[in-house]
Amino acid sequence: MTSSHNAIRHSIDRILNSKVITDPFPHLEIDNIFPESFYKVLLARVPSHKMFLPEKEGVFRMNIVSDPCGGMDQTTIFESRAQEKEKTFWDNFRYSYFGDEFITALLNKFETFPEEDVYMCGRLIVDRLNAGFGPHTDRYDKVISLIFHIPSVPINERGFETMLFKPKDPNFEDTGEHYTYDDFDEVKRISYHPNKLFCFKVMSNTGGIGSWHSYHQDTDLDRLTIKAFIQRDIDPEEVRRVVDETKHRSKRWRDEKNLDSY
Length: 262
Ligand SMILES: [Fe+2]
What we know:
Layout: H1 4-16, E1 27-31, H2 36-44, E2 53-56, E3 59-65, H3 84-97, H4 100-109, E4 118-127, E5 132-136, E6 142-149, E7 162-167, E8 184-190, E9 196-201, E10 213-216, E11 223-232, H5 236-246
Helix pairs in contact: 1-4
This protein binds fe (ii) ion (FE2).
């Protein structure tokens, strides 16, 4: 078996050798982000989905490193009833995949160097029916967002894909909300394949470029991912205040009359 220590070398090499795609905003799509043998163990160490905590409609999570700005129950896998061998695996995982070397590789790749200190948090997520948001750019304290796709087999459900957009108006003002699809053109879809990392630089429509993305799950199958974020180390209370002002609009895609076309 490949240890986390060796796996991180493979993953950083995969990042260094990948190309930043700039349309519609800077992102990476990397297959085989983990060594194959490590990936098999990772899948075997995901705790029972029954133990995941409800986060919001259709979304269940198991924290690996808590988000101080999350404002919810921030219990981690290490305080849960997960098995000891599962805790041991994810403990090693967080030291490698939430550590300075991995963070630095990603910051360098996206050539983004925040003035503040940064840190990384993340969680295992199971999405089910009605999980999702309308187009949004991600919380303003986030620098890089990562979604590790970790199904055991490829799943070609369209509702499992992440959609990337451009606003129809290049000067569209981003106020941190989750918008309906009316004001956006879909540019690309990210497929949900095993052992794949999709990550992007969070941009709030600066210079006409914003990290506009969305997903809307329309089946009750489990969509398993690790969602992780490199974040600026700013006052969590301030972040929560801003989120409280906007999150009530997070499901605005329900207003859409013709969701099938997305
Ligand atoms: Fe997002």
